[in-house]
Write a structure and sequence with these properties.
Two copies of one chain form a homodimer. Chain A is an alpha+beta fold. Chain A has two domains: 4-180, Ribosomal Protein S5, domain 2, CATH 3.30.230; 184-311, Alpha-Beta Plaits (2-Layer Sandwich). Chain A has helices spanning 74-86, 109-124, 131-146, 152-159, 196-209, 211-233, 237-253, 259-270, 294-301, and strands spanning 4-16, 27-43, 47-52, 59-62, 92-99, 162-168, 171-177, 184-189, 275-279, 286-290, 307-311, 318-319. The longest helix of chain A has 23 residues, at 211-233. The model of chain A has no long low-confidence stretch (mean pLDDT 94). Chain A binds chain B through residues 206, 210, 212-213, 216-217, 219-220, 222-224, 226-227, 242-243, 245-255, 257-259, 262-263, 266, 270, and chain B through 206, 210, 212-213, 216-217, 219-220, 222-224, 226-227, 242-243, 245-255, 257-259, 262-263, 266, 270.
Amino acid sequence: MPKFSEAIAPSQAFLYGEHAVLYGSPALAMSVDVKTRARVTEVEDRIIEIRSDRFPEGLRWRYDEEQPEENPLLPLAYGLRDLMKRYEFNKGLIVEISSDVPVNSGMASSASVSAAISAAFLSLVGESPEKYLLLDIVYEFERRIHGRASKTGPACAVLGGLVWVEWRDGNMEVSRIDSKDDLSIVISCSGLPSETKKLVSMVSKRYNEIRDVMDRIMHAISALTVEGRRAIEKRDLVRAGELMNINHGLLSAIGVSNYVLDEIVWTMRRLGAYGAKLSGAGGGGCVIGLSENPEVLAKNLSASYPSFAAKVSLEGARVIR
Amino acid sequence: MPKFSEAIAPSQAFLYGEHAVLYGSPALAMSVDVKTRARVTEVEDRIIEIRSDRFPEGLRWRYDEEQPEENPLLPLAYGLRDLMKRYEFNKGLIVEISSDVPVNSGMASSASVSAAISAAFLSLVGESPEKYLLLDIVYEFERRIHGRASKTGPACAVLGGLVWVEWRDGNMEVSRIDSKDDLSIVISCSGLPSETKKLVSMVSKRYNEIRDVMDRIMHAISALTVEGRRAIEKRDLVRAGELMNINHGLLSAIGVSNYVLDEIVWTMRRLGAYGAKLSGAGGGGCVIGLSENPEVLAKNLSASYPSFAAKVSLEGARVIR
């Protein structure tokens, strides 16, 4: 039987502070119990083969013989190739990915995939890194994939729980806070892609044009994120929801909401949510909401949008075989 | 023929800064060419009789013989009674009001009515006050009607043009800026009442609860209002529209938008507006938008909401007969 390892990793929801976190604000994210599973199998052939339930065409690359062809899975293959070099792994790999995380949804599906692959690969080569080392590896993996990456997605995927992101001495630092598993949110998908890169650069353009205004909005998001952490830690869902509503308004103000996201947000509120906001880069992707009864809210929302209740995942990336 | 006077007064749209103006921000409002006409006729009977196209039941009050009955026009009658005392006018008045300004629309219909009545009454008693004295009178009139009143509505109704509101040494001061008549907006009515008092107190409650957050939002509105004035004065409609979008997001953040207002705002944007926002206290009332071609936009919007294009009214309240 060929040597293999298998790992799972959760995904992310942004409770407060997305976008503003790129301008000095803290952010609070939640590791979401919607996961990616990756199985990495060692083969003698010097290939990287990736099979994904999302991209049925897959990818197969003889990495030291040929230039790979254009393929949506190629960035993953490059990330993996770098990881193989780093650990002086000279054989081949078959990677099988199955993920419940919607792509381009603002749920950091890519970080979840990167974390599951990295954890499985490291286990395969006999490493069992402590969490923050794995986090660095996943962050590097993501950077290799995207050019620029947020630390929040990798932190949710690797650390689990609630993730606090803040700036210290010019560095973005992530840490896990809270360790109760009684937080659930409702996630509702717009079906529109959330194109992080495009939105981040759009906000940056606006920031440079009307810095006075944008700075103050970022400061407001910063203040509400601090309040939001307090409310979430106390499980004061009413206040936490109100702050989500405010955060959504501020995200609208910086220009990253749209008609569909606003409609979902209002539908959630009408159906009794304490509050709702877009989660992640916006422009599409998912809306999250807080509710006394997330299962019921998700069921009611499902008439209009693919929706589900999701618990915080206290576990981060984990090798399962 | 009985002695009478007739006056007209424009209404208001808030371009930037509503709500925040109550927390120290400046505001920019526009006197809108949608007007109220009031005819005040002297009669020997010591009565106040008000006829209004909006309240067909009217009001008739023998002011020194009886307590008046409950009536939606009663606050107007009280305001008028005070004005009569101030000018030692001891006869009776028949007031006929016809207004194109929608009630509870955030367009300051009440200030427009107060201004038209005051201007007509003053003309009747032989006074021709200069603008800022008339403004004080209308402001007092409004205060008598509402208890608390904004200076913005009276300023739009009396001064005309674009009205800049700012705080100096703890006083809210209004002044007219700009004097070109080439600014038009589109106004679209939600059909929901905008209940200023309720919304102002809701915002104030939220302000007291999470002052840190709300203060920063108010500061952001303050900054964008300054930018907005600059853009409007340059007739840079693209920038002015973008700032309206931001202002709308910030108004959403403080909690005064709703599903219908957001829907109108998005519809305007989809139909090509440079930007759109709720105007006034929110919770209902009107949405305003900037467009290259307001007539066409208004026509397209009319399929969904009562909408019209409206020019800035360079004239304030004016006696016409």
